Amino acid sequence: GTLHWLLPDGRLRRTSALSALRAMERDGLLALPAPTTPPRAPKPVLFTPASDRQARIVGSRADLGRITLRPIADAREVALWRELVAQRRVAPRARPRAALHLRCWHYLGYRRHPGAQLRYLAWDAQGRVLAAMEFSACAWKVAARDRFLRWSPEQRMARQHLVVDQSTYLIMPWVPLSAHLGDNFPPQAVGHQPA
Predict the structure, then answer these.
(1) pLDDT (tens digit per residue) in 85-135
(2) Which of 125, 130, 141, 164 is deepest in the core (most CB within 10 A)?
(3) In what order do the strands lie in the sheet with 129-137?
(4) SS in 3 state form for the chain?
(5) Ranges in the chain, pLDDT < 50
């Protein structure tokens, strides 16, 4: 028999299977052959002035003009998204000889989530980035979620691809609270999710 580790489109759940095999090896349940290729190192985040602190936006939601939430479409936007979310080391201005400290706009920093991801940037009418958002594949097993949905193990396997995690949601610190963006973007993003 097979484990039926297939995606809804019939492709194998390769990344999930490899993760499970590595976990079994760590637990001493099996021994895997040596990798034939070295693991890829994550690409470093290159910081540019595009992700520097911007002047605080003054005004209300109406002053921002038309706000667009767009899925990231090209390599330039991927790089900007990673810059906005990543941690960076900068020398403090007040004490230039002091140890470098971490600064990031998102308190968790950037890390790649397993499985599929959809990333978005929100822009105002003046072309200023207002927010960064990411949805990723949901966790395989979450007891509280599965109880709430009243899923049996069979139902979870059949329907899990219909659930996503909102793994990153960052409203930039220069956006005023009076803009009420937190209420705006998640519902807009749901309309962009593939069926």
Answers:
(1) 886 555 445 444 333 334 566 666 666 776 778 899 999 899 899 988 888
(2) 130
(3) 68-71, 117-123, 129-137, 164-171
(4) CCCCCECCCCCECHHHHHHHHHHHHHCCCCCCCCCCCCCCCCCCCCCCHHHCCCCCCCCCHHHHCCCEEEECCCHHHHHHHHHHHCEEEECCCCCCCCCCEEEECCCCCCCCCCCCEEEEEEECCCCCEEEEEEEEECCCCCHHHHHHHCCCHHHHHHHHHHCEEEEEEEECCCCCHHHCHHHCHHHHHHCCCCC
(5) 1, 91-92, 94-102, 195
Record the tokens describing residue 64, joined without a space: 């921002």
Task: Determine the residue type at 61.
Answer: R
